[in-house]
Amino acid sequence: MAKIAKLDDIVSLCKRRGFIFQSSEIYGGLASCYDYGPLGVELKNNVKKAWWKSVVQMRDDVVGLDCSILMHPLVWKASGHADKFADLIAECKKCNTRTRIDHLKEKLVPSAVEGDAEQAEQHTEHVSIDTAQAKLHDLSNKICPNCGMVGQFTEPMPFKLMFETQMGANIDDSMTMYLRPETAQGIFANFRNVLDTTRVKIPFGIAQIGKSFRNEVTTKAFIFRTREFEQAELEFFCKPGTDEEWYEHWKQQRFDWYIKLAHYAKACVDVEYSFPFGSGDWQELEGIANRTDFDLRQHQRGIRTLNKWFENDRDLSRIQLADEAKDYQAGPLSYFDDVQKHRYIPYVIEPSAGIDRSALAFLVDAYDEEEVRGETRNLLRFSAALAPIKVAVFPLVKREGMPEVAINIYNDLKKYFNCFYDEKGAVGRRYRRQDEAGTPYCVTVDGQTLQDNTVTVRERDSMEQIRISTGQLRNHFREKLDI
Ligand code: ATP
Question: Which of 57, 221, 240, 365 could bridge across to 277 with cysteines, CB 3.0–4.6 Å?
Fold first, then answer.
């Protein structure tokens, strides 16, 4: 039975072994921004590769895309983000901490404390930037998560989540731009381009992995919620009426993906994961949404708004989105079904995963500690696809020609797998370092290798060692690692 990791264990291992560092640490750190170190970047790349393989490479009905982070500001007017992408926040009058009101917990009255007293964080949709509505929320029984005061909050206010920046060198014609808060809109904006340049036919999907930015009010729990993060999103376009079927299909596909990679999954449902913070609450790992035809229809309105954009000095706050054309079903973002000779706006199913949040779930899931001969062994039981290093190669000692043989093996294997060579210190300690990095296999060259060309191959989880001839190593690992 694997040990249930505490978040502190994960943070400390990540720092110690170079998985994840605080951003700008030498300047005291920048809150809620993180850097991936040498092992972390391999892990993160492997998460992305595994997603891309499952969602794009292995499917005949999905193509990829890589859009720019900065987009025309009208994109955000049409998508609703410019007017609606806000969280409701309230400030504690005692300690001045601002918290999202859907993250505030209630003070429980004694009669309600029976049974499960833990309250999961509520999830509410992002709200409109409308202050009047915001004030209606009752916070009289809510607790400040920072100082514990009950009911001492300012009136709730909307807090905009999009980061703004300026584009253009001249003050007169520079323009306010937004760092994208989701990658999805780049896909909708390219829907026509993809239709016109490829042979895709509905049902089909467009997938993208990339950075997104949100000025989150409360950031927490390491890389779970950060202000700069990476998303892996698929917009799957289908005929209205088939959307429920595709929704179920993608829910299952995505669920299976997590289970396949997290061999030792303690839990993973719909797609939530029980993270080791808060009260062990189940938290969203991936959102799977039926976006209907909303986005494509909105962008058709957005395109019709372009004139107003120039007339209003490119000031989004002064612009009203154009009304929807009466024949919107035949608009520029419609799809023509050439079998049924019928034009319509497709529906969209969207599985939207967080790469950093998935990486954290995989780290938590892989983390383990066990007693071995009176010592604690820390290890990451990563699946082969996720392990940053697949094979480590060691000479038992740094003499008798062993390093030369080991380097030859390393040079050969690294053409196929991400490998690591280490000749420093006692071999037992080298094994432990690789256990902590999550390396599934270690190869050791010893005295016998010089006699009969066999080496020891040690497996991380069982610590079992077998002897294999050097000529068979490549095939052995190909089969074992399944990559
Ligand atoms: P929440 O309500 O937790 O703020 P959300 O429902 O707005 O999240 P989505 O817009 O559905 O999140 O984003 C899709 C996925 O992107 C999430 O499931 C998560 O994995 C990831 N994600 C969203 N926001 C963040 C963030 N601030 N940091 C890290 N990952 C994030």
Answer: 221
**Alpha carbon distance 383, 440 (integer Å):** 8
Residues 94-124: b if buried by 16+ CB within 10 A, e if exposed: eeebbbbbbbbbeeeeeeeeeeeeeeebeee
Tens place of pLDDT per residue across the chain (483 aa): 566 778 899 999 999 999 999 999 999 999 899 999 999 999 999 999 999 999 999 999 999 999 999 999 999 999 999 988 778 888 899 998 888 888 888 887 554 443 333 343 444 456 666 666 666 788 889 999 889 999 999 888 888 889 999 998 776 677 889 999 999 999 999 999 999 999 999 999 999 999 999 999 877 789 999 999 999 999 999 999 999 999 999 999 999 999 889 864 544 445 776 777 766 667 788 888 999 999 999 999 999 999 998 888 888 888 999 999 999 999 999 999 999 999 999 999 999 999 999 999 999 999 999 999 898 999 999 999 999 999 999 999 999 999 999 999 999 999 999 999 999 999 999 999 999 999 999 999 999 999 999 999 999 999 999 999 999 999 999 999 987
Alpha helices in 333-425 (DSSP H): 355-366, 402-413
Nearest C-alpha to atom 9 of ligand 1 is from which residue?
Answer: 287
- 272 CB within 6 A, ligand 1: no
Regarding the beta carbon of 229 and ligand 1, being less than 6 Å apart is answered yes
Gap from CA of 354 to ligand 1 centroid (Å): 7
Q: Is the CB of 284 under 6 A from ligand 1?
A: yes
Residue nearest (by alpha carbon) to ligand 1 atom 14: 352
Question: pTM of the prediction?
Answer: 0.89
Cα of 419 to ligand 1 centre, how many Å?
Answer: 34
Interacting residues of 96 by C-beta distance below 8 A, sequence separation 6+: none
* Residue 143 Cα to ligand 1 middle (Å): 24
> What strand order describes the sheet that includes 441-445?
419-421, 391-395, 441-445, 454-459, 465-469
User: 351: Cβ below 6 Å to ligand 1?
Assistant: no
